[in-house]
Amino acid sequence: MRKKSFFQKAAAVPHIMWVIMFIAAPMLFVLYFALTDAEGKFSFSNIAELSKYGNVFILSIAFALIATVICLLIGYPLAYFMSRQSERAQKILMVLVMLPMWCNLLIRTYALMALLDNGGLLNSLLVKLGLDKVSIVGTNFGVILGMVYDFLPYMVLPIFTSMTKLDKRYIEASHDLGCNNWQTMTKVIMPLTVSGVISGITMVFVPSISTFYISQKLGAGKIDLVGDTIERLFQNTSTYGVGAAMSLIMMILILISVGIMNRFSDDEDKTVKRGGIR
Amino acid sequence: MKILSKFYIAIIFVLLYLPIAVLIIFSFNESGSLSEFSGFSTMWYKELFEDEEAFTSLMNSLILAVSSAVIATVIGTFGALGLHRMRSRYIKGAVNSITNIPMMNPDIVTGVSMMLLFVAVANLIRSQSFFGFGTMLVAHVTFSIPYVMLSVMPRFKQLDKSLSEAAQDLGCTPAKAFFKVELPEIIPGIISGLMLGFTMSLDDFVISHFVSSPDFQTLPLYVYNQTAHNVKFSMYALSSLIVAVILVILIAVNFAGGKKRREVAKK
Amino acid sequence: MKRTASIILIISLLLVLCVPLTSCEEKSEGESSGTVTLYVYNWGEYISDGSEGTLDVNAMFEEWYFETYGQKVKVNYSTYSSNESMYAKISSGSVNYDVIVPSDYMIERMIKEDLIVPLNYENIPNAQNILPEFQNADYDPDKNADGYNDYSVPYLYGMVGIIYNTTMVDEADTGSWDLMWNEKYAGNILQFNNSRDAFGSAQYSMGDVNLVNSDNEADWRAALEKLKKQKPILQGYVMDEIYNKMENGSAAIAAYYAGDFMAMYENNNDLEFFYPEEGTNLYVDAMCIPKSSRNKTIAERYINYMLSEEPAVANAEYTYYASPNCAVRENEEYIEYMNEIKEGGFDLMYDTDAIPTSSYRNLSGEKLLLINTLWEELKSDITVSAGIYVLCGVIIGTLVCLGIFFAVRKKKRDIY
Fold first, then answer.
1. How many CB pairs under 8 A join B and C?
2. Which residues of chain B have pLDDT under 50?
3. Pick from A216, B139, A240: which is nearest to C88 by CA?
4. pLDDT grade, residue A277 (50/70/90)?
5. Among the ranges A45-49, C159-163, C349-353, which has the highest mean pLDDT value?
């Protein structure tokens, strides 16, 4: 191979500079703020402070887990049924899944809240029908519902994509070899769509555990998750140290769970990429 | 079974679209109420079009999205080229993993980390108006770069090395060889990277929330401020319009050019 | 395909090159004719903004300024929802504003921390419109030669009270702060989402109006306990979201500012309001100029303009808050307007001498830190119900089983 020219050597320089300045350096700032006290000395006081937020962490993880599992339970059959429709129907359904993904999360969350609030359309309909009101906003159920509603498309799309990529001949072969529908599902289809499931799980779990808008609106400011706390610590009380410590812990938590997730994947492509989570 | 599955699909989609549908229907509601539909009217749309703040936010969003997407695409494409040619596996691996951090991290952590950096710089240069378009642009470029790399890198890997070498044998400089021979091959990747960056930027709220200032408000930030206060019904009109525009774009992309679908689907 | 692709790329590149160019052009054009941007940072819904047929005060100012001084000024108006978040923005030094409108105790703090500057009253002749009792404010103790507050000019003021929905709340339960702790209305009560007002509601409910400025840590802890007791029966902690929630009947009871009640009443006549008998908070929001301001003179003229009759009346009518401005108080049309919105509306705002009140004062740094800590303690006071633990246990258990199953199967496969 010939010697590299200046052009080729220089091509990556702006990228590397940018990445160091605006990705690596900010991360170091998080680390610095998390591990120093007010005087700038090294200390674990901020991390120790987090013990007060034990229940907040537990609740966030629990909500994210529950929302992810519900999304999977709803989304997997949905993706499967979608993949069995005609080509044209699939295209339309695909657009229908993608529309909410592209539509801003704030708008969808607000729309859901407006619908479910005690004085919203749902409850005024219930009252008209002579039924009791149901309180959803401000309850755990409301927050989880918000997460499921907002992030379900992120679960469906990758699973659906891996279903459509599945070679139909595998299914035919398994039927020919005497599998019934259920066996085909568990022995052929599920193992071959694991990569889609894994990326779906990551795409739901990560934004669920870090959200603050959903809990603000559907939890009515009463159910504080990790995201709300970080947001408040930075935007309201300017306690950067504790906020940074909290972000750090959350980051580590997510790295660990994504790491565990990747072990599940039998696929060649071991790194799960969170494609387009916003 | 067939009918059952169709029924299941229908139920889920109805539930998924119910809140959005209600929003759109009630944006035409004459009285500003969400619980009763009293009469058809387009007054909220009229009010929206007279709202200068909403219009400025839209323009800001578009300016930011276009400029950040292009900068990210340029940096990311050359970055991918340089990394592709790089011999040291370690540097390559390290740069790749750092680049992917914003993609793996929750948005709030990315936002907070950038805010800490900007506050530190602002204090260092004693600037009182450091936050604004500049900080937003840097943040948006930063979180778009990984997506550009994601769509450009595979194209480089597919490239036939001998083509560029042949061009250089025939007298091209390496830069010229890149622009004449390789660039046309990777253009589809660049375009999809550009599109991804554009939509990411347009859609972002969380990161912007931490690095913005009131001088430069984008559409999602405007929506956030609206929903934190006394919500005017023109907000419903705005949301309905956004949904409509996205629907048109999606249909155009999905049904006009069949081939493009795969690339967009990556999002 | 390739051709179109490259054409699209070129066009988008050109577009981008054009955008900064045009925006630069605009700027240089603007600067040559001398447009100055005045950054105003105010509470949400706190100015007459031209919506629904009201006057657009900021636009009027721009016009007036151009006519009077021959210079183009553009008002960049943005809003906050609590003193604390405004303070966080200003003190971080990352943004600059020319006019801000903090409440009394926050002004005291910002004076102490040297974040706002004394005003030059030569540019604010309309300060004479401010009623004398608002000129000897405790929160702004230094006075100038004319006896005016050195750092601040009162904008609007008001008192905290309790709003309730008459269709949901029994009249007999009203009158006292205890309504906010009444378990009969569990799930229908809204509390302030800012520390000072939330703690205030607990402290006033204890009957002593001076508790809100207590220097005794035990008093604050007692208030926290009271708030913790209230948390399970709350629907949520909200600020301006309260408008929609009270208007559409999503909640029955909320403590909020008197002026905002009038705004909600206009949309929902089922709402009622009272000042709790134990006493309540009297607050004054006043206009100040932050140290970072780059256009102090224009900012002072802006403040002056806000004190003149037309904009002051417009703001008072838009916000329904009480005005310390005698040009507003004596305006017949305004009095009529308030009474039209709600019978006795004018008296509700101004005839308040019988109610015991106190104002928040700035607290020592140590106490501020304490409040922050206690507020965090309240916000993070979450009980995770057994059901959630069980559900998560099942999920994690299933995951672990699946993991083991896959691992074993893989091993088996490897053996074959």
1. 88
2. 259-262, 264-267
3. A240
4. very low
5. C159-163
Decide: C273 and C348 in contact? Cβ < 8 Å: yes
User: How many C-beta neighbours within 10 Å does residue C146 have?
Assistant: 9
Is residue C181 within 8 A of residue C202, CB to CB? The reply is no
Q: Are A95 and B22 within 8 A, CB to CB?
A: no
CA–CA min distance A233, chain C (Å): 9
Quote the ipTM score.
Answer: 0.87
Structural domain range at position B151: 46-265
Q: Which two tokens stand for residue A9?
A: 């050597």
Instruction: Closest CB to C392: pick one of A53, A55, A62.
Output: A62
What is the rounded CA–CA span in Å between residue A34 and residue A56? 18
Residue B39 within any structural domain of the chain: no
Read off the amino acid at residue C38: L
Domains in chain B, number = 1
Domains of chain C, earliest start first: 30-156+285-340 (3.40.190.10), 157-283+362-379 (3.40.190.10)
Q: The tokens 């009253």 sit on which residue? A: C121
At residue A5, the pLDDT reads 64
Q: Which fold has domain A29-50+65-264?
A: MetI-like fold (1.10.3720)
Q: Residue A243 in contact with residue A29, Cβ under 8 Å?
A: no
**What are the sequence ranges of the domains in chain A?**
29-50+65-264
A78: which chain B residues are within 8 Å (Cβ-Cβ)? 8-9, 12
Q: Note whether residue B27 is domain-resident.
A: no
pLDDT at residue C3 greater than cutoff 60: no
* Facing residue for A29 by CB, picked from B22, B117, B139: B117
- Cβ–Cβ contact A253 with C under 8 A: no
User: What are the tens digits of pLDDT across the range C44-75?
Assistant: 888 998 877 788 999 999 999 999 999 999 99
Query: Closest Cα to residue C103, out of C239, C280, C283?
Result: C283
Mean pLDDT on A80-97:
89
Radius of gyration of chain B (CA): 23
Question: Which residue type sits at A32?
Answer: Y
Task: Output the pLDDT for position A4.
Answer: 57
Chains near C with 3+ CB pairs less than 8 A apart are A, B
Nearest to B229 by CA among A198, A110, C355, A215: A110
Residue C102's CB is within 10 A of a number of other CB atoms, namely: 29
Count of Cβ atoms closer than 10 Å to residue A55 Cβ: 15
3-state secondary structure at position C415: helix
C152 contacts C288 by C-beta, under 8 angstroms: yes
Per-residue model confidence as pLDDT tens digits over C176-234: 999 999 999 998 999 999 888 999 999 999 988 888 998 889 999 999 999 999 999 99
Asked if residue B69 is part of any domain, the answer here is yes
Q: How far is the alpha carbon of A264 from chain C, nearest alpha carbon, in Å? A: 7
Tally of CB atoms within 10 A around C70: 8
CA distance A217 to A150: 13
Strand arrangement, sheet containing C99-100: C73-80, C36-43, C99-100
In-domain check, residue B195 = yes
Contact by Cβ (8 Å): A217, A228? no
CATH of the domain at B174: 1.10.3720.10
Is A61 at the interface with chain C, CB within 8 A? yes
- Reported for C316-319, long-range contacts at CB under 8 A and 24+ positions apart, including other chains, are C316/C156, C317/C48, C317/C54, C318/C47, C318/C48, C318/C49, C318/C54, C319/C45, C319/C46, C319/C47, C319/C48, C319/C156, C319/C259, C319/C263
φ/ψ (deg, to 5) at B226:
-65, -45
Q: How many CB atoms lie within 10 A of CB C111?
A: 21
User: pLDDT tens digits for B207-244?
Assistant: 999 998 877 889 999 999 888 877 778 888 988 998 89
